[in-house]
Design brief:
heterodimer; A: 215 residues; alpha/beta; TIM Barrel; six-stranded parallel β-sheet; 8 strands; 46% helix; globular; B: 102 residues; alpha+beta; Alpha-Beta Plaits; four-stranded antiparallel β-sheet; two-stranded antiparallel ribbon; 3 helices; 41% helix
């Protein structure tokens, strides 16, 4: 998969790591990607079913990962995740009928909206999925929400080049500028910001140690 | 009308015949954009390089994004799973040949 990503032209990828994986295993996976010339950012995808579960997971995992994504399985979780500053990206499963990216969520959203285009379109090649993605994009455009375009690839066969991902998004109604930013500047700024925050010198947002007091 | 040329890498597939390759592109374009879209995009396979598993495809300049999208949504070709990845886009075939040589 690392080789496919390199061929596709990616320089950095978000690796969704299961929470129980040993640190040595994580290091070895990252090394495999880095040997191919692909930088990795550690990412966790949370799929909580309640507000309490989401807040507990955020407290536990936020500091350990570069990117925190929340899969919105119901409106309650979607509302809390959109409002919380610790959440970097929220995403919706287009196959789930009970929750969708609404105007009220778009107004609340602090992070970015992620569209897992390939995994959604290939899992259920259905017109209703296309319609739901189109509607999501229309709402995001209306409220100037930051959009991250991702393949959601779980194997090498689902990897597509960034150009293709942005082409799908723009075909589904996202503006040309936003679709290009969705595979380049938006995800890269999220990673850069979080890597900075996770450094030891960082105290809080906008405050960091410039000169150490130790002599 | 000016055209654009795409360098496409064929991954995970076995040895595809030119006909299979051609058919899978046409089918995907027709499925996602219809017959009117097909005439607007006007995809043509220019050359396939078996040694590097790459191919040069051309389309109308204004419909470039549509062809990129149609290529991304192809998952199988002649019964085998396949991935078409757009590596580069150029206004000339010469530009893409240089890229293959690199």
């Amino acid at each position: 998969m690392a080789q496919t990503l390199k061929t596709a032209g990616y320089s950095t990828v978000g690796l969704a790591i299961p929470t129980g994986l040993l640190p040595e295993r994580v290091r070895s996976i990252r090394r495999t990607f880095e040997e191919q010339g692909v930088t990795t950012a550690l990412r966790i995808d949370l799929g909580p079913s309640s507000r309490t579960e989401l807040l507990r997971s955020l407290r536990r995992f936020r500091s350990a990962y570069d990117v925190v994504g929340v899969k919105c399985v119901n409106t309650r979780v979607a509302t809390i995740a959109s409002r919380d500053r610790r959440v970097d990206v929220v995403f919706f499963d287009p196959a789930m009928q009970n929750v969708r990216f609404s105007h009220s969520l778009a107004r609340l959203l602090h992070g970015a909206l992620e569209l897992n285009l390939i995994s959604s379109l290939l899992a259920l090649p259905d017109i209703s999925i296309l319609l739901r993605i189109r509607k999501t994009i229309a709402v995001a455009q209306e409220h100037n929400v930051k959009v991250v375009i991702s393949s959601g690839a779980r194997n090498a066969e689902m990897v597509r080049s960034p150009v293709q991902l942005s082409a799908i998004a723009s075909t589904l109604g996202l503006s040309e500028t936003a679709s290009i930013a969705g595979v380049s500047s938006t995800p890269s700024s999220i990673i850069t910001e979080n890597v900075q925050k996770r450094k030891a010198e960082s105290i809080e947002e906008g405050v960091k140690i410039v000169i150490s007091s130790r002599r | 009308m000016p055209r654009r040329y795409l360098l496409v890498k064929i991954l995970h597939g076995g040895a595809l015949t030119d006909q299979q390759f051609h058919d899978s592109i046409n089918t995907s374009v027709r499925t996602h954009f219809g017959d009117v879209g097909f005439s607007r995009i006007d995809p043509r396979v220019i050359k396939t390089y078996q040694s590097t598993s790459t191919s040069i495809i051309s389309c109308e300049r204004t419909a470039l994004r549509d062809l990129e999208c149609a290529l991304a949504l192809i998952t199988d070709c002649g019964g085998t799973s396949v991935t078409f990845m757009v590596l580069a886009v150029s206004g000339t075939i010469k530009g893409l040949r240089k890229r293959i040589g690199r």
